Amino acid sequence: MLNIGVFGAWRGNSYIDLFRDDEEIEIVAICDKNTDKLNENKENFGDAYLCGDFDDFLAEGKNRGMSAVFLANYFNEHTPFAIKAMEAGLDVISECTAAGTLAECVELVECVEKTGRKYILAENYPFSTQNLKMGKIVSSGELGTLLYAEGEYNHSGDNAELRKYTPSEFHWRAWMPRTYYVTHALGPIMYMTKSMPKYVSARAAHSDLLYKIRDWRHNYDGVGMMFCEMDNGMIARCTGCTAMASDYSRYRVAGDRAGIEWGGYIPDDKVRRFYFSHTKPEGEEQISLIDADLSEFGEKGKKAAKAGHGGGDYWIVQEMKDYFLRDKKPFFDVYAGVAMSAVGILGWRSCLNHGENIKIPDFRNKEERDAVRDDRLTPFPDQDGNGITLPCALPYEETE
């Protein structure tokens, strides 16, 4: 049995539902600074201990047998809480990005190595139904030598929706550069191709429209696009959270024999495979639409179909259980997690320097860790509006 605590009930709520319905998981504690919301919904939380203080959450949770913590707090603030939890003897599953600065990447890795605790990044987009199907085809080898991949995560919204998700002046969503939310675009590429980023070069483009209509947000760039060299020799193009590149997200992996893709004009329950004329196997169509559904997973597939993010949230819970309960190592361990965070962090610096090509540190290597150990540059303010050391959008001068 996995006795788990959840930190952050807003984003964590969809996972709380999954945990509650899982016979191998018991929720023992839930922590959120908005304790009124916790108490309003306490009938959904069973016998879990409810509190608004993280230290209290750790102490009382451990008293109740808590062995792991699910972090669903603010996007750029996971690392300090992950470290506290691991130093308290708990395993950690962390939602969204692993770290907000390069220094935090180092601190997180060294805490895992020092404590020996298990850490997994809860990046769910690789486990959407279509990306699972694409990954299966990539792993079969039928694409040949992998050459190119792309992940494009587009998430726009009207002002009312975006105000809801930006509840305060110094909330992270109001200050996040376009490259930082890289996990939903790069994560599927890394997972499908089992590769790690080595270099990043990036560009952003300013939007006059965003500048005029969203004065309550400061990240006025409409697009952030990154190019990565991967350790398997291929190249990859990915976005961060891009507002204006398209009205849908899409993914592609191309080899020297074939390619596989989904998104946009491709039906939601299909992926599109294409062979080159000189590589098409006998008896195969040059272009095929292949079913991408959850029926092949049996009962687990039925459960995944009810979960968020195309089933991704369900599969993340299965990955977590396999690691914490059965010691099956996940792909998104701490090293993959911080490498992905570093792409967004350094991708933004590349944007500010006209596409400069920047090496992603190998966080397994102490010498490379030492080079960025004190690097705390950040575009995010603290709750009082202090601490910003980088702009969150391209330099812009308003003209008549």
Q: The biggest beta sheet, please?
A: 9 strands, mixed
Q: Average pLDDT value?
A: 94
Give the distance, in angstroms, between the N- and C-terminal Cα atoms.
64 Å
- Quick one: CATH superfamily of the largest domain? Dihydrodipicolinate Reductase, domain 2
**What oligomeric state do these chains adopt?**
single chain
Low-pLDDT windows of residues: none
Overall body shape: globular
Key structural traits:
400 residues; 2 domains; alpha/beta; 34% helix; Dihydrodipicolinate Reductase, domain 2; Rossmann fold; 13 helices; 15 strands; 21% strand
Would you write up a description of this structure?
The chain is α/β, with parallel strands linked by helices and 400 residues long. It folds into two domains: 2-125 and 317-334, Rossmann fold, CATH 3.40.50.720; 126-297 and 335-372, Dihydrodipicolinate Reductase, domain 2. It contains 13 helices and 15 strands. The protein has helices at 9-20, 35-40, 54-63, 78-87, 102-115, 129-140, 159-164, 183-193, 208-213, 298-305, 312-326, 334-352, 366-372; strands at residues 2-7, 25-31, 49-51, 68-71, 91-95, 119-122, 146-152, 197-206, 221-230, 235-239, 250-255, 258-262, 270-275, 287-291, 358-359. A nine-stranded mixed β-sheet has the order 14-13-12-11-7-10-9-8-15. A six-stranded parallel β-sheet has the order 3-2-1-4-5-6, sandwiched between helices. Helix 4 packs parallel to helix 5, helix 5 packs antiparallel against helix 12 (334-352) and helix 6 runs parallel beside helix 8 (183-193). The mean pLDDT is 94.
